[in-house]
Amino acid sequence: MNFFEIVLTLAISLGAVVWGVNIYNQKGTWFLAGWNTMSREEKATYNEKAICHLFGKCVVFCGIGAFLLLYGSFNHNDYILCVGLGIIAIMIILSIIIPKINSKKYRQYKS
C-alpha cells in the first residue's frame, strides 16, 4: 500500500466510526438520510434515543467494514475485501429490519 492508499483507508474508516459515535450520542442526526425531511409530528413518533443507538452502532460497524474492504482492495486480498463488504451489507440490512421487527422499541404510537 502506498501512502495515499493508507491515508484514504484510514480517513474513510475513521470518519465513519466518528460519525457513528456521534449518532450513537444523538449528535449529527441532521446527516441521517430522511431525518430532516420528516415533519415534527412524524419525528415525534420515533424513539430518537433508540434509533440513534441502533444507527450509531450500524455506522460504526460500517466503518470497520469499510476499512476491511479498502484494505483488502488495495492489497489484492479478495477474502478481506468480501468480509468488509459483508459487514457493510449486514449492517445496512439490520438497520432496516430491526426497527420493523421491534417497532415497540423504536416507535412511539400515540393513542
From TrEMBL:
It comes from the Bacteria. The chain crosses the membrane at residues 6-24, 50-72, 78-98. This is DUF3784 domain-containing protein. The lineage of its organism: Bacteria, Bacillati, Bacillota, Clostridia, Lachnospirales. It comes from Claveliimonas bilis. Pfam families: DUF3784 (PF12650). Keywords: Membrane, Transmembrane, Transmembrane helix.
